[in-house]
Amino acid sequence: MIKAILFDMDGVLIDSHDAWFYIFNKAYNKFEGKTMSVEDFDKYFWAKAFDKIAKKYFTVPIEEIREYYVEIYEDYRKRLKVIDGTKEALESLSGLKLAVASNTQNSVIRKILKDVKLDTYFTLFVGGDDVPNGKPEPDMLIKALELLKLEKEEVLFVGDTKWDRMAAVAAGIKFVGYKIDGDIKVNMLKEVASYVS
C-alpha cells in the first residue's frame, strides 16, 4: 500500500528551467566572465547535482555561488511558474505523506515552495545539500525513506528526467515518469492519484 509520494521539484511542481538558466548565466558571467548556451546548459547542467557539475565550470568555491544565488533570488523568483494543475493534484493526494526530493539545496526548496504557496502540502524536504550525492545517485530517496520511516514498497517517486529515474531504480523505488517513461508514465500530475490505491 502506498503511504507517501516523493516529488522532484523542478520540472514537476515548478516550471523553473528559464529561471535557473538565467541565474546560472548571471553567476557564470560574474565569476568566470563567460556565458553558456541553453543547449549546453540543458546537456551539462539541467537537473544534475549542482555541486559536482559546478566544480568543472567554476573556479570559485560552491559556497560563493550559492551566496550569490541568494542575492539574486528575486530575479529567479519572478521567472518561476507553478505547473498547471499542481495544487489540485497535491490536494487529491491529501491522505498521503508528500515529500520533495530535489538536487536544489534544502533552504532554497523551502523558500521557492513557500513563495509559490506550495510548501504546506509537504511534510518533508530533502535537498542536494542534505546527502553526500545528489541524483542520479539514490542517497536522497533513501534518506527520505528513513525520515518518513517507510519501506521502499510504500512510496512512489515522481520525476521528469533520466536522473530521477536512475535514482529511483538505484533506490528500488517505483518511478512515476512525468512526461517520460517510468514504471508508470503520467502526462498530468493529477493522474498520480489513480496509482495510489
Description:
With 197 residues, the protein is an alpha/beta fold. It is built from nine helices and eight strands. Strand 4, helix 7 and strand 5 form a beta-alpha-beta unit. It is globular. The protein starts with a strand and ends in an 11-residue tail after the last strand.
CATH class of the largest domain: Alpha Beta
According to CATH, what is the topology of the largest domain? Rossmann fold
Portion in helices: 40-55%
Q: Strand pairing plus helix content: what structural class?
A: alpha/beta
N-C termini distance: 7 Å
How would you sum up the global shape? globular
How many distinct beta strands? 8
The succession of helices and strands, N to C, reads EEHHHHHEHEHEHEHEE
Mean pLDDT: 94
What is Rg?
A: 16 Å
Strand content: 5-15%
Query: What is the CATH superfamily of the largest domain?
Result: HAD superfamily/HAD-like
List the uncertain runs.
Answer: none
Strand order of the largest sheet: 5-4-1-6-7-8
Return the domain count: 2
Major beta sheet summary: 6 strands, parallel
- Please give the count of helices: 9
What's the CATH architecture name of the largest domain?
3-Layer(aba) Sandwich
Task: Give a short summary of the structure.
The chain contains nine helices and eight strands. It is an alpha/beta fold. The chain has two domains: 4-15 and 81-195, HAD superfamily/HAD-like (Rossmann fold, 3-Layer(aba) Sandwich), CATH 3.40.50; 17-77.
